[in-house]
Amino acid sequence: MKYLTQLIGKPVLNTNGTTLGKVVDVIALLSERFPNLAAVQVHTREGDLYVPFAQLEFEDDPDGPQGVGNLQSDLRLQVPMLEIQHYSAPEQSIYLRKDVLDKQIVDVHDFRVVRVNDVRLAECGDGYCVVGVDASLRAMLRRLGGRFSKPLESLAKLLRLPLRSNLIGWDDMQALEPGTGDGRIRLKVSHDKIGRLHPADIAEIVTQLSPQQRAEVFESLDTETVAEALAEVETEMQVEILHQLDIEMASDILAQMEPDDVADVLDDMTEAQSDAFLEQMEPAEAEAINRLLAYDDDTAGGLMTPEFVAIPADLTCEQTIQRLRELAPRAEMIYYVYVADEDDRLVGVLSLRDLVVAPPVTAIQSIMVHNVIRVYADDHADEVAQMIGRYNLLAVPVVDEEERLLGIITVDDTIERLLPQDRRRRLPSLSQRETDDN
Length: 438
Prior knowledge:
Elements: E1 2-3, E2 11-13, E3 19-29, E4 36-44, E5 47-52, E6 56-58, E7 75-77, E8 93-95, H1 96-100, E9 104-107, E10 112-115, E11 118-124, E12 127-134, H2 137-144, H3 146-158, E13 167-169, H4 199-206, H5 211-219, H6 223-230, H7 235-244, H8 247-256, H9 259-267, H10 271-280, H11 283-293, H12 300-303, E14 310-311, H13 317-327, E15 336-340, E16 346-351, H14 352-357, H15 364-367, E17 375-376, H16 381-390, E18 395-399, E19 405-410, H17 415-418, H18 432-437
Parallel strand pairs: 2-7, 14-15, 17-18
Antiparallel strand pairs: 1-11, 2-3, 3-4, 3-8, 4-5, 6-7, 9-10, 11-12, 12-13, 15-16, 18-19
Helix pairs in contact: 2-3, 4-6, 5-7, 6-8, 9-11
């Protein structure tokens, strides 16, 4: 295995041994599974010359193995200069130094964005091909070459910096179209594997991208996945991303998000921007969001979601389970089943466990908890968090002064307030997709 940086800057000799110039880039063809090295771009006094890779051979290196496999040796033309067939790069070509080296890619294993420090090459038949990229610190040190690389590598070891290779196979990459020059390359996993990551991991990746890159990643994913990932990033970034998307697409994403999350996003926008999104929503949905926006952020009303399951007290367990099947609520909505009277006043609660283990004909009112722990819409958010922590609740209902059920607050919406400042991290909500996976 060899590397691109061992070719860049290498002298190219004429057949008589005189120096023709130096390699400034390498051209590869994208038509194969692993791009074949097709030509080298040689900088000469008269200008740049493109020499087919097949018309080059490697000089023997007195300090290393001999033969074509040693890229530490100089390159020599196989035929005189006048007989060189000038290479013209076809459309399906990529310049490895210009289009790949130093560009950013997504490492889905560590959920981070990394920079390509070198390109991995291997012998393929009679020539060489590209088999992957190296994003490691070792690759960066290797690029320094000469007398600097060894001392710096020793220093890195002394400082216990990771020097292991971070190789990403070319099969997992999607190169830019030639000539786009927008400073990055994209992986195939941007469209395939990223979409199968946990939303929190997707969020971890996109927070490291530029605004344009974040928008492009989200445009490649379905709206449900984007909505779940967007809920995991800071509100300021949510607003930034939504502004970069088409308003119809952004509205579709908001429609997939939890109402309380949507309210948080719109609250960070200008009134005109917020109104533009609200106009795209269904009237009932927009009305629910507006009700949430009326509450202060640091109150129970500002934290709650209006999506919950409430049933009348005269149902049996079997009827309640059937009602749940019909409603098909999202997982976080059914931590508990709340019981309300004909005036929507909260009168009881039962857990899913109690509902499932009870005989089907059992009346709900006979097994429900009557003394329900609840909070009021104007209660401070810190009080809500402390109550959830004190009673080990997964959710707590929110009521008005007349005990009418307004919404629920789930544990993931308050967990940050329960943790010390240096340990706070958003707890991902339980999505329907996670439930399906289990």
